[in-house]
From TrEMBL:
It holds the Pfam family Transferase. GO terms for molecular function: acyltransferase activity, transferring groups other than amino-acyl groups. Belongs to the plant acyltransferase family. Keywords: Acyltransferase, Transferase. It comes from Saponaria officinalis. The lineage of its organism: Eukaryota, Viridiplantae, Streptophyta, Embryophyta, Tracheophyta. InterPro entries: CAT-like_dom_sf (IPR023213), Plant_Fungal_Acyltransferase (IPR050317). This is Uncharacterized protein.
Length: 315
């Protein structure tokens, strides 16, 4: 079986899209080779075409409408109009708006010639555009679409989608969006391209905890100690508000000081973000509940064989 290519068009987004790179996660790299597209074919039969003649494109699957709708759909789905690139040893999607390939073709065969349309190499060769990988990963399109008209009036739309960009579910989301745009409708669901999740904040840090963490890290780094040096943050805590069963009388004149101790190393304090250090302070203060304070033993002295540097921050 053979087809005749009528026209090939590189369809770019109809509007300006973000110029950025999207890194690929390990899941995106499920197919290790970048020189591979995944094919899919949609078949549409034209009813009551007894003469087996090619219908006018303005009547059935107008290519101009499909191209214009594709151009508009590539605006929210802009990674599909990009190209792959290598950054160090990592593949990324270069969202450069180079476009997706749209091919128009005709065949003198009828759809019945393909039998039950069971997937095979011949069907893929006729209905899905082949990709030229010879020029390198930054040259070939990540999405290719082929509209093929058959003698019976039927139409096939063959897709070649690079798997590094999206999986099957995301591809169907794109197809549904393209269909809606071609009908003059809006997108039912906006695509999300960020490669991270906005997790809800589970711990609220106080001003003291953040400032204490900042002082601990800054003073520790300024001492010029080796990365494996252990260093502690000592926080004198007033136990009056923490002892409630029974509570101390108001105006109690004596010592109700307890020590909250955070431990880390110079390396961790230097490399970890402030949120992690402040969270360490938060968890230490949280652990100083009434049960812990009543259990705290009174020791005359604590002797250590190793030197431990301290940072004292009053609360």
């Amino acid at each position: 079986m053979s087809i005749q290519i009528i026209q090939s068009t590189m369809v770019r987004p109809s509007e300006k899209t973000p110029k950025k790179s999207l890194w690929l996660s390990k899941i995106d790299m499920i197919l290790r080779t970048p020189y591979s597209h995944t094919g899919a074919v949609l078949i549409y039969k034209l009813e009551n075409n007894k003469n087996n003649t090619h219908p006018s494109s303005s009547i059935y699957f107008d290519a101009n409408i499909l191209i214009e709708a594709l151009s508009q759909t590539l605006v929210p789905f802009y990674p599909m109009a990009g190209r792959l690139k290598i950054n160090g040893d990592q593949y990324e999607i270069d969202c450069n708006g180079e476009g997706a390939l749209f091919v128009e073709a005709e065949s003198n065969h009828v759809l019945e010639d393909f039998g039950d349309f069971r997937p095979n190499d011949e069907l893929h060769r006729v209905m899905v555009s082949a990709c030229d990988y010879s020029k390198g990963i930054s040259k070939f399109p990540l999405l290719m679409v082929q509209l093929t008209r058959f003698k019976c009036g039927g139409v096939s739309i063959g897709f070649a989608q690079h798997h590094h960009v999206c999986d099957g579910m995301a591809h169907f989301q794109f197809n549904n969006s393209w269909t809606r745009v071609a009908k003059g409708l809006g997108l039912a669901l906006e695509p999300v391209h960020e490669r991270y999740l906005h997790l809800p904040t589970t711990t609220k840090l106080s001003t003291y905890e953040v400032v204490a963490g900042h002082v601990w890290r800054t003073v520790s780094k300024a001492r010029g100690l080796p990365n494996d040096q252990e260093i502690k943050l000592i926080m004198p805590i007033d136990g009056r508000s923490r002892l409630n069963n029974p509570s101390l009388p108001k105006g109690y004149c004596g010592n109700v000081i307890f020590l909250g101790v955070c431990t880390s190393t110079i390396g961790d304090l230097s490399s970890k973000p402030l949120t992690c250090i402040a969270s360490n302070v938060h968890e230490t203060l949280k652990s100083l509940d009434e049960d812990y304070l009543r259990w705290t033993p009174c020791s005359r002295s604590i002797r250590r064989k190793t030197r431990i540097f301290l940072v004292l921050v009053f609360k």
